[in-house]
Fold this protein.
Amino acid sequence: MAGAAVAAVLLIPDPGPHRGLVQIDGARALYTSPTLALATATLLALALSLFGFYVVSHALGRDASARLGTVLAATPVSNLEYLSGKLLASVALLGAVSGGFLAASMAMQVVRGEGPLQPGTFAAHYAVLAGPCLVWVSMLALVFECVPWLSGRLGDVFYLLVWACSIPLGLVGWKAGGPRLARVLDVMGFGFMVSEVERIAGTRNFTIGFGPIETNRPPIVFPGLSFPPEALALRAASLLAPLLLFPLALALFRRFDPARTRTAPGGRLQVPAVLTRVAGALTRPLLRPLQRLAPDVALTFRARPLVALAVPVIVVLSSSLPAASVRQGLLPVVFALVSIALADVATREAASGTTAIVFAAPRRREGFAAWKLGSAAGAVLLLGGAPALRLLAAEPRAAVSTTIGLLLLACSAVALGIATGTPKTFMAASLALWYLGLNARESPVLDYAGWWARATPAVQAGWLVAAAAAAALALGAHALRLAREG
């Protein structure tokens, strides 16, 4: 909620004659309540649909890790009651964050607005645009946790693909001649918002996001969305549509029963478990030397045998593919694998209850953050070292960006893991950055990994400073933790 409040302050800066938060046909829309409500509700739906999933996607896992799952499984509480409670709790949590953002946005209307505050206008825009998003994200998070192969890192990555596909899917239904049923799947409200702005303003030439205005047109007053009954009915359907997935979650929920898990003794192994065991057997000889040299790096790959199996494949592809294919095709895959491998590098001891054992090693308690930074750097070196060396000979500038990007992920994984105590924070941040970088071919600023070879020396220096700041955050967060524990 604190982050949401800060975001509202940053998203609504002081208006200027040539800069604005909402632009329609090149003209700045005045900071009235309808304008700010439209802009902030749209941006909230975008952020909530992506990051909200990682906030609430460990609801069942927390009960399991706290040894509470088996207690709940032995109570008369039915699966329907338990999952309904988890769903409502997730909706309430995301609703509380949304409420904090709403309050901060209205406060900024009072401070920087160009018209009177209209709380009802803000509430209506937020409910219609972002309301269905709360239920959709909470429902998907619950379903993913009930599906064994989607409850871990693979599910975190797969959700990013679902999120990316849901944006154009929501827009299709509102286009002329588009399937009306697709409007129900417009969970983020983008299609509805674009359709209504076009109808009210008479143009599709508008942008949301603080930026420069090229023309000298005078500011305009945007009246806000009008919410006709048909549109409200469709948004209500979008609010209820995710609930159709609830029976699927109910059918797949294992109620913390070890006899129904993929690792059950004598139980039938599922495909992901078989692949993991095969990969573990194949990579065990390769990891033995690493186990002697860097045990914690080896543990990173032992915990993800499929990622370990990808290392020799990456080396072969790096040496055989053209440099352009390595940069544009192989590197994005490598960076996604790095995000999966490093997510829990700083939190796995706490999750497994082995922190006290690890801290018993000499100077390990005081140097835990530095140890983890070295371990993360070793893991990214094994995963991304071969592509970086390949590019160093053919495209040195891209190789520099790749090296800096790998260091950024290594430092960020440790910093966010220590600071927040959960791997979800790093997964959400790294995958969001991965998605932005993948879709920003023409932007030098977002070419943090060298995929498009567009980063300038100044941009590379900026990302290097960000990596150093993440390393400093890791060391500082651990020092603060030790100070609290005495």
Residues 262-269 have pLDDT under 50 and may be disordered. The chain has two domains: 2-260, 271-485. DSSP finds 20 helices and three strands in the chain.
